[in-house]
């Protein structure tokens, strides 16, 4: 079983739509959680952290459910520029540092 | 402000050849990382370095060698390239204590024929 699992998509949505992605992780010792964004053929970039209390940044809301071991990302009022692959990332201790474990990503396509 | 750069951006090599991928960062970050990204696998950690002259294996280190004689440089060498090493390679760096926030280079697309 993969340590971090995501639906690969693609999710095709019109501009202005609300879309949500989920991600599950297998290691209950995972310490912190993040969403990274990766544009086509580009490098990943940190989008936002995920806290147990929820975290909102403009149109983006991230939530964590430790009991069920899943993480979600909600995007409201989708823009064309939101088209990208969203990587769910889990932070785990690895011989003295916090190792990032990346999911394979969920692809979002926002159309006019 | 160059940030983190990788070279070459594209490389085609033959099976059995030695290849070195370069990574350079201008932030003086303590930590540097090498990942490979393949379809269906996501990003996988090859090697990382906590400081100059301190390196350690990640998830998929076999067939790779790293060194870090200077804080700003972290080259990755494929000693004898194999077709299974065809991939996109990303270098990243982060501050000590904030290794969850990694800054990635633009990537090197390597094809081994």
Task: Give a description of the structure.
The complex is a heterodimer of chains A (112) and B (113). Chain A has 112 residues and is an all-beta fold. Chain A contains no helices and 11 strands. In chain A, a hairpin with a 4-residue loop joins strand 7 (60-65) and strand 8 (70-75). The model of chain A has no long low-confidence stretch (mean pLDDT 92). In chain A, strands 2, 4, 5, 9, 10 and 11 form a 6-stranded mixed sheet that branches. In chain A, strands 1-3-8-7-6 form a 5-stranded antiparallel sheet, with no helix packed on it. In chain B, strands 2, 4, 5, 6, 9, 10 and 11 form a 7-stranded mixed sheet that branches. With 113 residues, chain B is mainly beta. Chain B contains no helices and 11 strands. Helix content of chain B is 0%, strand content 51%. Chain B is globular and about 40 Å long. At the A-B interface, strand 5, strand 9 and strand 10 of A face strand 5 of B.
The residue ranges of chain B in which pLDDT falls below 50 over 5 or more consecutive positions are none
Alpha carbon gap, first and last residue of chain B: 36 Å
**What's the helix-strand series of chain B?**
EEEEEEEEEEE
Query: What is the overall pLDDT average of chain A?
Result: 92
Q: What global shape of chain B is seen?
A: globular
**Count of helical segments of chain A?**
0
Helical residue percent band of chain B: under 10%
Helicity range of chain A: under 10%
The two chains with the largest interface, and their residue counts, are:
A-B, 23 and 20 residues
Beta fraction of chain B: over 45%
Report the major sheet of chain A. Answer: 6 strands, mixed
Using the CA coordinates, give the radius of gyration of chain A: 14 Å
Number of strands of chain B: 11
Oligomer: heterodimer
First-last Cα distance of chain A:
37 Å
Mean pLDDT of chain B: 94
SSE string of chain A, helices as H and strands as E: EEEEEEEEEEE
Helix/strand-derived category of chain B reads mainly beta
Structural class of the helices, strands and pairings of chain A? mainly beta
Count every helix of chain B, treating DSSP H or I runs of 4 or more residues as helices.
0
């Amino acid at each position: 079983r993969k340590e971090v699992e995501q639906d690969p998509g693609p999710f095709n949505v019109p501009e202005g739509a609300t879309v949500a992605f989920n991600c599950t992780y297998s290691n209950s010792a995972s310490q912190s959680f993040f969403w990274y964004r990766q544009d086509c053929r580009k490098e990943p970039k940190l989008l936002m952290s995920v806290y147990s209390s929820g975290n909102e940044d403009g149109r983006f809301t991230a939530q964590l459910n430790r009991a069920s071991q899943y993480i979600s990302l909600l995007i409201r009022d989708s823009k064309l520029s939101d088209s990208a692959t969203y990587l769910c990332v889990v932070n785990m201790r690895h011989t003295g540092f916090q190792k990032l474990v990346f999911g394979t990503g969920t692809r979002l396509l926002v159309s006019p | 402000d160059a940030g983190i750069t990788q070279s070459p951006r594209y490389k085609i090599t033959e099976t059995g050849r030695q290849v070195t991928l370069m990574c350079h960062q201008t932030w003086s970050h303590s930590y540097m990382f090498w990942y490979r990204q393949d379809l269906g696998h996501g990003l996988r950690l090859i090697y990382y370095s906590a400081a100059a002259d301190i390196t350690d294996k990640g998830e998929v280190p076999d067939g790779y060698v790293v060194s870090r004689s200077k804080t700003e440089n972290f080259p990755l060498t494929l000693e004898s390239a194999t077709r299974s090493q065809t991939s996109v390679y990303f270098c990243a760096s982060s501050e000590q204590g904030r290794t969850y926030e990694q800054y990635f280079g633009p990537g090197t697309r390597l094809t081994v024929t």
